[in-house]
Amino acid sequence: MDYIRYKQQVMQEVERRGLTSVMNDTRWEKLKVGVYRKLPFPPAFQVKKVLSPKAEPESFQQDVSYDGDWHTILGDESDDAQFCDWQHPACDVEWIRVKPRRLEFRGRLVENKLIDIEAAFVTLLKECGIPYMYKEGDYWIYGYATAAEFAHLHK
Q1: Where are the domains of the chain?
Q2: Name one Pfam family in it (predicted).
């Protein structure tokens, strides 16, 4: 499917569901660049796409020991980037749930160490002007939000 048709489908679904746009390509790009340049590691996330019925990964309750691949969910905005199945543009991100921490394996007999970058992540969100919501111990960044969600975003 080509990018223009895909984006039209996303916009039709956004309109059908009455969602409000919160982010734009510029903000997503600033966030993605900041994640890789200003944080010690790219935090793991769960993403819900507008056209997908379920978030990926489906289960995201516990702290994890892997990094997030922000290029995959927010795309590559360079001039030679290609729209493909494994890399979608940011226009289809309904929300991202971020865990700004990571479990570091230290051995079978030693408890894993929790590396917390929450303060640096919140600073990045504020520097980039990214509206977010904190709930359930995680940070939620909305590409599109319902009126109720929009009202609770920290700006």
Answers
A1: 3-151
A2: DUF6678
Sign for the pseudo-dihedral over CA of 46, 49, 52, 53 = positive
Question: DSSP 3-state assignment of 92?
Answer: helix
CA 83 to chain centre: 18
Residue 76: helix, strand or coil by DSSP?
Answer: coil
The answer to whether the pTM exceeds 0.90 is no
Q: Please name the residue ranges forming H helices in the chain.
A: 3-17, 25-38, 70-74, 118-128, 147-151
User: Which residues lie below 8 Å from residue 77, measured CB to CB, with a gap of 6+?
Assistant: 25, 29
Tokens of 44: 């793991």
- The residues pairing with 102 across neighbouring beta strands, listed in sequence order, are 115
Q: Which tens digit of pLDDT belongs to each residue from 58-109?
A: 988 888 888 888 988 887 554 444 555 545 678 899 999 999 999 998 888 8
Among 94, 97, 100, CA closest to 135: 97
Q: What is the pLDDT of residues 26-70, one digit of tens each?
A: 999 999 999 999 999 999 999 999 999 999 999 888 888 888 889
* 96 SS3 class: strand
